[in-house]
Amino acid sequence: MAALNVRLLFQNITLSSKTLSSIKKKIFLTNSLNQTTICYDKKWNSSLAAEFRSAAAASSNRRPLFWTSESDPGKHTSRHEGFFYTISPDHFSRWLTKGQGEHINKVMKAFNEAGMMIRAPATEVIQCIKSSDASAPVIRYVFYGRRGSGRSMSLAHVMHFCGTQNWVIAHLPWACSLNRYCKEVQYSTHRPGRVDQPLEAIQWLSYFRSMNEPILKPLSTINRYVWNKRETSEVGTPLLELLEFGTNRAKYATDVMGVALKELRLQASNGNVKLLVATDGVNSLWSATNLKQEDNRHRKHLPEELTIIHNWKKLLRNDWSNGAVVCTVDGNALYPADTNRYLPFDLLGKDGFDLLDPFIPINVPAYNEREIHSCIDYYIDRKWIQNPKADTDEGRRELIALTNGNPLELHNLSIIW
C-alpha cells in the first residue's frame, strides 16, 4: 500500500477540511529542527503535494531560527542557548504558575503556549547541580542582574529541571510579599516576640502541596510535634497529613510551615528526597518591613521578628545536604525599592551576605546578539510585533538600540512599536 511519509513541524501547517478528508493513506509525522522533507507517491494528487511543500517550506524558514524541539531541560546545553523551548501544560501548571513577571504571563496567555528561552545563566547552574556531590553541603547560587534581565526566568528554568528530576521544590515566589504586602499578623503563642502570618502560611502550604504532592506521599515526619494539650503529630505522621492540618487550622499554619521546612531539611540529609530551595528576591529577608506593631503604631516589625522569614533563613544555610539553594536578588525587593542597585553584596547587606557566604554569583546579562534576534523572530512569528519594518535590518537595529538588549524593555517596546 502506497504511503505518504511526511517530516514537518505539524503545528505550523493548516489544511482545509476537504483536503484532510481526502487523505486516505497513513501519515507519519516527525518533528525536526534542521530540515523538512516530503516524500510522496507519484499517484498522489499533485495539488495536495504542492500544498504540503508550501506549508513545510514556510515552517522551515521560520521556526528553526528561534525554536528547539528539545523540551527536556536536563538535556539543554550551550548549543541550545538562544532558542526557545516548549514547556508542556502539565509541567507549567505544576511548577511554574508563580514567580514569573506579569508581562510573561500575559505573553504566554496571548500565545496560548508556555515558551522559555534557554540562556547561559540557567544552563550553567543546571550543569553545576548535575555534577555536584549530593553528600556534600548544599551549594548556594545567586542570580543577579539589572532590572528586566531575566533573573526570575533563569530561576524558573532551574525549577523546571529539578521538577523533571523528581526533586521536592520549596519555592518562595516573591519574598518581599512577606514583609511588605502582608494582610494579617498575630503574635506567636509558640515563641514570644515572634509574629505569625497565618494567611501567607496557608497559601504557601497549599502551593507547596500542589507542586510536590506525588513525591510527598511516601514521606513521614521524623520528629514528634505538640500543638496543644490535645493535638500532637507523632513520629511517622504522613507529611501530607501535616500539611492538611496546617491548611485547615490557621492558628497553627505558620508553625506547621516551619515544621515542614525543618522536615524537608532532615529528609534531604537522610537521602529520602532531593530538595531545591528557590527564592525570588531573597535580599528582602533582610530588608525593612512596613508592618506596624499593634501596641506601638510608630514602630515597625523587624524582618527577623517574622516567623516565616526566620524559618526560611534556616533553609538558606548549608548545614544540610542532598539539594541546592538557588536565589535571585532584586532592587525591587528592597523597602523602599531601588532598581539602580543590583550587585549581591549591595542588596544583601552584611547580614545576608554572611549567611549565604560562600555562594556562587551568576550574572544574568542583557540579551546577546543571538538571543535578541531570536526573541524578535519569536515576537514576529506570533504576531506580537506586527510592524513589517521589524523584520528588516534597519528595524531590528532600532529595536536593539532602543532596548539595549534588555528583555523587559524589548517586551514593552514591542507592544507599541
Give an overview of the whole structure.
It is a single chain. The chain has 417 residues and is of the alpha/beta class. The protein is built from 15 helices and 14 strands. It has a five-stranded parallel β-sheet with strand order 7-12-13-6-14, sandwiched between helices. A three-stranded mixed β-sheet has the order 2-1-3, with helices on one face. α11 links the parallel β12 and β13. The termini are far apart.
Fold topology:
Elements: E1 4-7, H1 17-21, E2 27-30, E3 38-39, H2 46-62, E4 84-87, H3 89-95, H4 102-111, E5 114-117, H5 120-131, E6 139-144, H6 151-164, E7 168-172, H7 177-180, E8 186-187, E9 195-196, H8 198-216, E10 225-226, E11 232-233, H9 239-248, H10 250-269, E12 275-279, H11 307-315, E13 323-328, H12 344-356, E14 360-363, H13 369-381, H14 393-403, H15 407-416
Parallel strand pairs: 1-2, 6-13, 6-14, 7-12, 12-13
Antiparallel strand pairs: 1-3, 4-5, 8-9, 10-11
List the keywords:
single chain; 417 residues; alpha/beta; 5-stranded parallel beta sheet; 15 helices; 12% strand; disordered N terminus
Quick structural summary:
The chain is an alpha/beta fold and 417 residues long.
From the spread of the alpha carbons, the general shape counts as: globular
Largest sheet, described in full? 5 strands, parallel
Low-confidence residue ranges: 1-46, 58-64
Structural class: alpha/beta
Percent of residues in helices: 40-55%
